[in-house]
Amino acid sequence: MPINDNEKVLIGKFVQRLPIFKNLSDDNLKQIINEFSLAKFSQGDSIFYQTDESTDLYLILQGSVRACLQNEEGQELVLTHFREGDFFGEMSLLDGRPRSATMIAQDEATLAVLKRNKFLNTLKTEPMIAIDMLSALVQRLRKADEMIESLAFLDVKERLVKYLLEIAASEGKAVDDGTIKVKKLTHKELASRTGASREAITKVLKVLIFNKAIKDDGNYFHILKASP
Ligand code: CMP
C-alpha cells in the first residue's frame, strides 16, 4: 500500500526511534522513510510463514505480532512477541535466505515495510547501521540463549512459573489481596509459550491452583508476587 503524507509522518516518528537507524544522517533518514510502504493485518492473520522466500523488513506501527515455529501437527512454539516500535524480518533481510519463523498478528496490526534492496543501499552509505543492527541481533541471541537454557534445564512447572512471573512483571496489575492479575491464557497458549504439551500444562496448573499459588477467576490469573 503506498503511503500518504500523514502516514509518512507516522512512519518517520517510528523510524527515528529505531535503534538500528539512530545514527542515520537527516538526508538518509528522509530518504529511507520515503521507501516504506504500509501493510495492515487482522488478528490471527499470518504476515509470512517459516520458509517463505520474502526478504522485507517490518516495523510495527500499531499492534503486536508473535514469531513462532509450528510442526506438522499444528503445535506451536512461540519464540517471541514484538510490539509497537519493534522491527522484525531482519534475518532474511540480511542473509537473503527463507524466513526462519512464522509471524502472526496477535491483534489488528499496522506495519511499515521496507524492501531489502532499499535497506542494503542505505547500509552501503551508512555503515553504522551494521553496528547498530549487530547490537540488536546480539540482544535477540541472548534472549534465545535464555530460552534454550529454560527448555534444557527447567521442568514444565518451573518454565510455567517463570513465564507467569515474567508476564506478571511486564503486563500485570497489582490487586489489593497482594496478587498480580494477568489476562487469562488458554492451556494451549501457555503450552506454546513454554515449549510444553497442553496436557502437561493442564496438570501443572491444577497443582499451582490447588497450592493457592495461582487463582483463576475465569478472566484473569491472580499470581502470588512471591514465586508460586
Ligand atoms: P526472518 O527470519 O526474516 O523472519 C522471521 C523473523 O522472526 C526473523 O527474521 C526475526 O525477526 C524473528 N525471529 C526469529 N527467531 C527469533 C528469535 N529466536 N528471537 C527473536 N526473534 C526471532
What tags apply to this protein structure?
single chain, 228 residues, alpha+beta, Jelly Rolls, Arc Repressor Mutant, subunit A, four-stranded antiparallel β-sheet, 45% helix, binds adenosine-3',5'-cyclic-monophosphate
Characterization of the model:
It is a single chain. With 228 residues, this protein is α+β, with helices and mostly antiparallel strands. The chain folds into 2 domains: 5-152, Jelly Rolls (Sandwich), CATH 2.60.120.10; 155-224, Arc Repressor Mutant, subunit A, CATH 1.10.10.10. It is 45% helix and 24% strand. The protein has 8 helices and 12 strands. It has helices at residues 5-17, 26-35, 90-95, 116-125, 128-153, 156-171, 187-194, 198-210, and strands at 37-41, 46-48, 57-62, 65-70, 76-82, 87-88, 102-105, 109-114, 173-174, 179-183, 214-216, 220-224. The protein has a 4-stranded antiparallel β-sheet. It has a 4-stranded antiparallel β-sheet with strand order 2-7-4-5. A 4-stranded antiparallel β-sheet has the order 9-10-12-11. α1 (5-17) packs across α2 and α7 (187-194) packs across α8. The chain starts with a helix and ends with a strand.
